[in-house]
Design a protein that fits this description.
With 379 residues, the chain is mostly helical. Helix content is 44%, strand content 6%.
Length: 379
């Protein structure tokens, strides 16, 4: 299709290829289809896409076609990170004193805990000066941070945006530092996120959600000098250790954010030659029980992070898969990232097709050593 013949509905400004922190995303003039006149959108609102995007874009809201199948898999349970859930932060703050909404109470408690972590971080040597430096760095890179999101963040004013990124970033760093230090001790820390394993697990689960991300580059830029002094390692190394990927392929690769890291360590298990046919469309894929009925043999491979599936001499080799609730959340968010950012290299598609039915899950559990949760979820 020749797009040059289409009417221009959105007209970019003269400096659209330049990102500046002074006015990161001025509202574009839109064409009124009825009158044929341009007008400015009167007020920026949440949820509106930035079009066109740039190659900086890497964080997305999960498409509704995926969300409606399992909305809880994409929704933070405790901690809200980044601008895509900024509206929920405001709701939580407004709900102060209302104990009837447990989810908002959890969000509110975590917003207060971010303030606690910021205050604790400031107590470290040179902490106050470091935080002032963080603010300057975030302000300098504000436009690039905003460009990392598909949705426009213009509705969040600059001071609030910088404050949000500061609080969320310091929370992530302080939480990871405390986890790394307290892992070797059984003494009580008086920090519930560290003393109560279920809370720490819930925070880690929230930190890998696609909608709950901050660009990794800004975390590195803020914390590498700090972490190097405190722990004698880079923030990249601290992150790899926190998510227990030290011995995995791809742990030294670059990634855009935590969800991208989870995908990266899996994709690196696939050899380069396997990508040669990745652009071919799959029009139909039979479920595992149907393949078994057709005489195909299944064999389990000992690597839970691998996504490499091979077929040779009538044997389909599939990596073992821990099908618990956390695995479902992880895989669904990786799949959402692939659909939005890596549509031509979607490794999660195969897993989704293979386990579409309860009967199929039961078969894979018995024949391929897949470990399923007590209740097999419908997908």
């Amino acid at each position: 299709m020749d797009f040059s013949t289409l009417p221009i509905l959105r007209q970019a400004s003269d400096s659209s290829d330049k990102i500046t922190s002074a006015d990161p995303y001025p509202m574009d003039p839109l064409l009124d289809l009825e009158s044929g006149t341009n007008h400015e959108l009167s007020k920026p609102v949440p949820g509106v896409w930035r079009v066109p995007t740039t190659d900086l874009c890497c964080i997305y809201r999960v498409p509704n076609c995926l969300r409606r199948v399992s909305p809880e898999a994409y929704t933070p349970q405790s901690v809200l990170i980044g601008p895509l859930h900024y509206s929920l932060k405001l709701q939580a703050l407004k709900s102060r004193g209302d104990i009837t909404n447990a989810r908002l109470m959890d969000y509110l408690n975590m917003e207060e805990h971010k303030k606690f972590y910021l205050a604790e971080f400031a107590k470290r040597p040179e902490g106050k000066n470091i935080i002032d430096g963080f603010k300057r760095v975030i302000k300098e890179d504000e436009a690039v941070i905003r460009a990392s999101y598909l949705e426009s963040t213009a509705w969040i004013k600059s001071p609030k945006f910088v404050e949000m990124i500061l609080h969320d970033s310091v929370f992530i760093l302080e939480f990871m530092l405390r986890c790394s230090v307290e892992a070797a001790t059984t003494e009580k820390t008086w920090d519930p996120l560290i003393d109560e394993p279920c809370l720490a697990q819930e925070i880690n689960r929230d930190l890998i959600l696609l909608e709950n991300q901050i660009p990794f580059f800004i975390l590195e830029k803020l914390f590498d000098p700090t972490v190097s002094k405190l722990r004698k390692k880079t923030f990249h190394q601290l992150t790899i250790k926190h998510f227990e990927f030290q011995d995995e392929k791809g742990s030294d690769a670059k990634f855009r954010h935590f969800t991208d890291l989870l995908r990266r360590v899996r994709v690196e298990t696939v050899p380069d030659h396997a990508f040669e046919r990745c652009y071919e469309s799959m029009y139909q894929m039979y479920n595992a029980d149907k393949l078994d009925g057709g005489g195909i043999k299944f064999e389990a491979v000992e690597n839970p992070l691998s996504v490499l599936v091979t077929f040779e001499k009538g044997v389909l080799k599939i990596p073992k898969f821990l099908a618990d609730d956390d695995a479902e959340i992880t895989i669904r968010n990786i799949m959402a990232l692939e659909q939005c950012h890596y549509p031509f290299n979607s490794h999660g598609y195969l897993v989704n097709q293979k386990k579409k039915k309860k009967k199929t899950l039961t078969f894979l559990t018995t024949s391929c050593s897949w470990i399923s949760s007590s209740t097999l979820r419908k997908t």
